[in-house]
Amino acid sequence: MTDAERMKWFHDARFGMFIHWGLYSIPARGEWAMHQEKIPAEEYAPLARRFRPRNFDADAWVGLAKEAGCQYVVLTTRHHDGFCLFDSKVSDFTAPRTAAGRDFIAEYVRACRRANMKIGFYYSLLDWRFPAYHAGPGKDPEGWERHVRYSYAQVRELCTQYGRIDLLWYDGGWVPWAEGDAKVNYAPKGDVWRAAEVNAMARQLQPHIVINNRSGVLEDYDTPEQHVKASDPGRAWESCMTMNDHWGYCAGDHNWKTTTQLIHNLVTCASGGGNLLLNAGPKAGGIIPGPSIKRMQEIGAWMRMNGESVHGAGRAPFGGNNLGLTTAKGSTVYLHVFYWPGESLVLPEVKPRIASAKLLATGGKVKVRQEGDRLYLSGLPKAAPDKADTVIALKVA
Ligand code: FHN
Question: Whose C-alpha lies nearest to ligand 1, atom 1?
Answer without folding.
Answer: 172
